[in-house]
User: Fold this.
Amino acid sequence: MQKIVRVKLSVEAYVREQFHKQMRSPSQCPNCGRFHRLWALGYYQRYTTGLLGKAIAFLVRRFRCTYCRMTVSCLPCFAQPYRLVNHTTLEAFLKGRHRGRDVEAQRDLLRRYLHRFVEWQPELIDIIGHRFGRASPQEDATAFLRRAVAICGSASELTVHLVEQFRTTCFKTYRCHQVSFAR
Ligand SMILES: [Zn+2]
Assistant:
């Protein structure tokens, strides 16, 4: 499973401080709900974009639950689940701040994300209902996404909220956010 962990660091600082080593085990297993059962398992590498929009490798800490045997990876909240561009850059793009170097460097990918969101929005609404209020017929998908980000306070908080409350994300529902009772 994947848990999004709130950290107050950029990816640059996370890498510089080797913060993956300080990532504590979540007290509660997101799969079986038991407490104090997660033990460090190791790390895996993935990428997100940094301040200038370039891909930066970082390590994600993994744990295993001694009760349900599920592995839990702790993704720091600057990164999006399964998407390269970081949350801050995504948010700047959504707010129309297109002149930043990070947005400029990833503009094509960000446009693809937005197309994906437009396709995904009806399914997302089925999942979350009126969590962000009733959309008016005039409101397009981009405006809706911008509003959801504003209500949550940031794009990363929106993702944390969607994963924790609805087991989905801004773009897709992933298996790694679902509970499995296999043991
Ligand atoms: Zn468990």
Summary: The chain has a mean pLDDT of 95.
